[in-house]
Design brief:
Helix 5 packs antiparallel against helix 11 (about 435-475) and helix 13 runs parallel beside helix 14 (about 610-620). Strands 6-5-7-8-9 form a five-stranded mixed sheet, with helices on one face. It folds into two domains: about 80-115 and about 145-275 and about 285-475, Outer membrane efflux proteins (OEP) (Up-down Bundle), CATH 1.20.1600.10; about 510-643, Double Stranded RNA Binding Domain (2-Layer Sandwich), CATH 3.30.160.150. The protein is about 60% helix and about 15% strand. The termini are far apart. The protein is an alpha+beta fold. The longest helix is centred in the first third of the chain and has 73 residues, at about 155-225. The chain contains 15 helices and nine strands.
Length: about 650
Amino acid sequence: MSPIRTPSPVAGRSRKRRAAAWLAGLAVLGGCAVSPEPMTIEQIEQRVAEDRQRMYADQEPISGLMSFSDVVARVMKHNLDFRLRMMEATLAQRQLDVGNWDMFPRLMANAGWVTRSNDSGGRSVGIESGLETLVASSSQERTRTLGGLEFSWNLLDFGVSYYRARSLADQALIAEERKRKVLQNLMQDTRAAYWRALGAQRLADRMGDLMRRANIALARGRQIEQQGLLPQAQALAYQRALLDSTTLLQIRRQDLELARAELSALMNLPPGTEFRLEDLDEPRLPPLPADMGRLESLALKQRPELREEDYRRRITANDARRALASVLPNLSFDLGLQYDSNRFLYNNSWAQAGLRVSADLFRMASIGSVRRASEAQEDVDDARRMAQAMAVLTQVRVAALRYGLARDELGTLAEGARVDKRLADFARASASSRVDSELELIRTEARALLSEYQRQIAYANAQGAWGRLYNSLGLDLTPSAPNPDLDALAAAVSDSLELWHRGVFARPSGIDDRPKVSLQLSGVDGELTRALRFGLVDALLESDVHVVNGDGAPYRLEVSLMLEDPEDGGAGGEPTRLGRWSLRMIDVLSGSVVGRADYDERLAANALVGQIRTLSARALQSSSSFILGRLFEAHRARADDAR
């Protein structure tokens, strides 16, 4: 029978210590595991609240009416998309700052304390005899302190870091070009939204009044149907006609009203913020630019996309040089000061230096492949840039064409709006209390308001096409002082718009192929004559006609305005008087009549000066095909004969 062994107390304690060590190790490893932790509802709600507060923070309150320059200034200062691009440009610059430090040599300082559980040492054995020649010995303390200062410079690291920093510099410039592009797009979007929102603001009161009257008339029609005062078919037709008159009007109203919300979003205004736009006279839309070749050259130099492609080609060249530098032989230099507290050392501190040359022969064999890949990439960059340049030239041409078409459409719709307004005035003057008369009046006024909505939309489209032309050229805003306020930004925007207008729509120096026309006026005198002249000059300039003072022009526009006696406006109505414009375009050299037209319009008896200026321009515009169209035909024919 084998004896029973009693476990040694020392062995038991050893097993317990090993078990405890295993458990501690497992606990440490378990602490390194990470499990998914979704955000709580409270955290999400807190994030939403903070974002909403930061989105609209530090915004100046709106005071007074806002012009287009004021709106653009707010867009520049508070639009979140533009802020993002500005931050990206700043980030690219900060990354360049970091990349510049990579080119510096390495200067490493180190200090430490090391220890071990036993002595290090060894024995020596004779090579020839194989006999142990020394007893085991150690020349190193178990615990010691270390320190050092090492300077090292590596040609390969420097070359790679240098070309990487140059690429980062070009990346920073690309970020700036992208910021330019975002701002140019915002300018275009703001222009289109501004004029639509202003049109909605102008017509809001008229729309509200007409809808109120239409609803009253519709309720009256239902009452007539219920009381049997008219046959049911006639009463329903009356209601249907009212609904038809207002349905399309409400659709057009939505087209303009939505622009107000879009404009508010562009300015990053908090939802529900009220603002009003400054209702100034609509700027005259200039004729098409005269020198498209000059504008195309300007676009090829200014567009952010093409400048970005230039920087991308430089990045490609730098990347090729960096790849080539990485396969060339490497030269490194090291210099250091070291300290070791080991008491067995003869010298506890020392200096050391080294110079090394190394080369990866297999990688050096790939130099030809690296060069061919670089050349292929440069060819791709050139092809992409030329394709982009062709797209830019097409955009310039299309933008100019769209502007011309939008301008022509505006002229047609403006004439339609004038005719519908005169019809509404006539219907209003002859309205009676009969149901059919009331229906016709509302329908006529609805049609006039619809025409005005369409004219406002057409003008906004023309302004948008005008802005698209600027955008296709890549024009920049005039720089302002750092961290400007809204007034300074608005002034910079206004200056930029003036410079853009002169730069885009000005004719080449020494070239003016516009027809030259002088004015001869009769029928009125004093302030009314000046108002008549100003209105005609406005219309001629808008039509790209050169107005000449005196008798030196080859064409003369003779305009006579006759004002009839005032008439009573009826019960509570304002007195009116009829104005009759007679227009004739004369070829001075031949004495022949190029074109003639007559125009009648009823004016309020008071405040004639402002009305005459506006209506005189309207008189010439409404008869454009009979006067200006034939003027341009005669001018082209004379130019062809001269050639």
